[in-house]
Amino acid sequence: MLPLAHIPVQPSAPDCLAWSPDGELAIAAGEEVYLLVPQNGSPEPWAHVRITISQFTTKEWPWKEQASFEDMSIGEEQARATVTALAWSPYGLAKHRRSVLAVLTSNLILSFWASDSNPADLGSWRRVLVANKALSPGSRLQQRVRSMAWAPTDPQHVERQTPFSRRRWGIPLIAIADDSNGLYILKVSSPFAGQSLAWNIELLHHEDVPVPNESNDRPSLLSLAMNANHFVDRIAFGTWDGDIPLVYRISGIFHHASVSVREDPPSRVRAKDVSDHEPLTVSIGKAHPKDPNMPSEIVVTPLIKARMAMEKEKFGVVKNIGGHVVLRTWGLASFNTLVAGCITLHPAKMVEYTAPFEGTATILFDAGNDNSNNSNEKSLFPWQNPVEVDAANAQQSILDTVLDQKLQRSVNLSRFDLRIIYTAFCGNLILNNDERVERLQSAVDTLSSIERHADIDLLVEHRTLLSIKPPHQISDQELVDIIRQMTKWRGQAESSSCTPDKALLDLCPICPEVQRAIPFDSFTEAFCPQRHSFGHAARCALTFLPLLEPGTNKRCISCDREFFDEQAHPEVHMKLSQRLGPINMGESNDQFIGAAQESRLVRHSLASVLFDKFDTCPYCGGKFCG
């Protein structure tokens, strides 16, 4: 079982825990968010990260004058930004298809935080958006966020087959309630999902929640004060079934609603002054309280109760106060079958004095399905114990995408794309599977495509294909030696021609000008003829090109394979303002797509399509970091 985690913070919310779809556990802790990030291949199960939430720049949240008494302000402009609620978005909104953390603070500001590289690195976390700016610009009450909740991804909104689809990971929706009983449904977009140039919030629906009528004819002064302002203090979504149920609480009473999301009829021709936002229609109706798709509460498991009792007893022994111990719970959260609970321990019947920096809390875990001491906690997280995959099948899927003639006709092939195609041509010949005859037959078409776009003659490659024996009479090692020699000759030809801009092979940064090309003889290793070591001499597991440039790589957190980072590599990254939208590979739309591409004077590159399709590890399905 997972060992308990002691964290040096004091929780600040009744429901202080939030678990991301990737297994990161966030704890609301005063003006900070404390993160427990799972580690793979480390004796410590968690990496500990503390993010300070309360610091805003004037650009993020401008300074404001104190509100009037009519708005019932006690000066939220001067209030501490204590974290009161946390919620993770579904997959796909942040970089590397990760989740975004929504943080609501006591000064009623809702901000979004995301990691731009490795979640275990504090320096990678940034506040990317402040949601209050998207609310009504009217009353101050309408610019304060009281509660929020992310909607789970609707499977019907996911479209992963079409390159550059805006719905590759679904439509990220969030519900927000303001201080004037306004209920909003918002769509969040980012530079890493869809085609938005920057982080943005789009208002899809807004309606006012009816205020409950007071039944007491002669209310007390306390009742008048407490009920002067009704607001929605809790929101929760259920699961999708055509529509999605929504539950919200106002004045202690739960109300049930149903959210419907419909796509407007598509327009084949879009005017130049029309935005690229998705045309969606959202409506909210009534729902039955006994809907089976309604959200369910997490309960304290017997194991967590037992561990709470053990921690309580241990605290009494350590502090020498016996059974005079008070245990406080600060919420539960679940991830797959794993349940986490946060507790703090305090002395009873006596004065307790602690400074804020002395706060401590304990996180207890229950795996649910296996409580034995021999259970492996790494199996609780899917990316830590990946399913065994056949590397040859993954490589075949990548090569099929690169060598797809229809795709090559629909994109603009750059010099970097031609290098990818040439490497895929070599890899397709030495791939270890039973379709060698078909691969040899398609090799000629691949060479013709390269010659047509690169304006060079690949005589060496054509001669090599003619010299290869019948497929059943040659061994795998003999074929590898032939391809190595072929690429070696290609490198010599490119070195003697002195045209590096037309080179199809990478050059060793250590060798002299002659014979610098790195031949291809492996999907994973890259060495020059002199076997120089530049870095780790590895190849990108997606393009199979050598990884020669530091700072432009990412890796899979599960299988540790390395890839080019499309956001950092200068030849892979394409500005989002240049992107056209989903590529339709249907023959009937080729003319329309070509006209649209010519009108915008830009087309997708093969590399950008490749990295868009394989946005998670094609070998194990793990997420990227870096």
Structural overview:
The chain is of the alpha+beta class and 626 residues long. Among the domains are: 81-111 and 132-265 and 276-296, no CATH class; 391-625, no CATH class. 20% of the residues lie in helices and 23% in strands. A 4-stranded antiparallel sheet has the order 1-20-19-18. Helix 5 (415-430) runs antiparallel to helix 6 (436-454). The longest helix has 22 residues, at 476-497. Residues 19-242, 290-365 form the Transcription factor IIIC 90kDa subunit N-terminal domain. One of its GO terms (molecular function) is histone acetyltransferase activity. Residues 502-624 form the Transcription factor IIIC putative zinc-finger domain.
